[in-house]
Amino acid sequence: MDIAANGDGQPVGRTGIAERQQIPLPYLTQVLRALVNGGLLASTRGPSGGYTLSKEPAEISLLEVITTLQGPVSPANCAGIKQSGDCQRLHGCGLVGVWSRLQSASEDVLRETTLAGILDDGAATETRQAGGGAPDKKLDCIGDRCPLPIMRLSEEIRHLQPSQILEVWADDEGSKADIPAWCMGTGNELLGREEFGGQMKFLIRKGG
């Protein structure tokens, strides 16, 4: 997103990205390398070098980015067509279909969301973040593995009034990717997110 917003056809240096997004440079370097290897970024060496998008922002979906960085979007190992995993209760489990539908819904939202679409909403999002206010409730999902944070988030937000804000902490990589998609799919508003080491804080405003 930083490259899409600041590139304007020119390479964007990783140091500038790290400073603007407050991402540790070693971690950012790994992310950029993965996106280059995945064909979403191109890198240029030299004093004026940096990174550019390999396609127009309107042609890059959030699904491409997430699957490039972490693999398939799956709420559980048993979800999806392959239904991989080592669960001994896979056959006859009533939740397999639920996880598969959740995976399909998440993929649809992420596939329809492009970098260009997010950029178009950027100014409005910044305004909302500035006036977001203090959270009305906090939810600690540190140590919980996907899909438990999503389940706890769904339950917790049910008890809030419209426009109230929930602060959620998570460290599971799958959950950190799925929470924004969950917000979009449920009509709740993601006000912002910040990463602190391996932990991420989300601010979510309950929809009307």
Instruction: Briefly note the CATH topology name of the largest domain.
Output: Translation Initiation Factor IF3
Instruction: Please tally the β strands and state the result.
Output: 6
**Distance from first to last alpha carbon:** 28 Å
Strand content: 15-25%
Oligomer: single chain
Supply database-style keywords:
alpha+beta, about 210 residues, two-stranded antiparallel ribbon, globular, Translation Initiation Factor IF3, 6 strands, four-stranded mixed beta sheet
Q: In words, what does this structure look like?
A:
The chain is 44% helix and 16% strand. With 208 residues, it is an alpha+beta fold. The chain folds into three domains: 2-53, Orthogonal Bundle (Arc Repressor Mutant, subunit A); 57-120, no CATH class; 129-205, TusA-like domain (Translation Initiation Factor IF3, 2-Layer Sandwich), CATH 3.30.110.40. Helix 8 (148-158) links the parallel strand 3 (137-141) and strand 4. Helix 2 (14-21) packs across helix 3 and helix 5 (96-112) packs across helix 9.
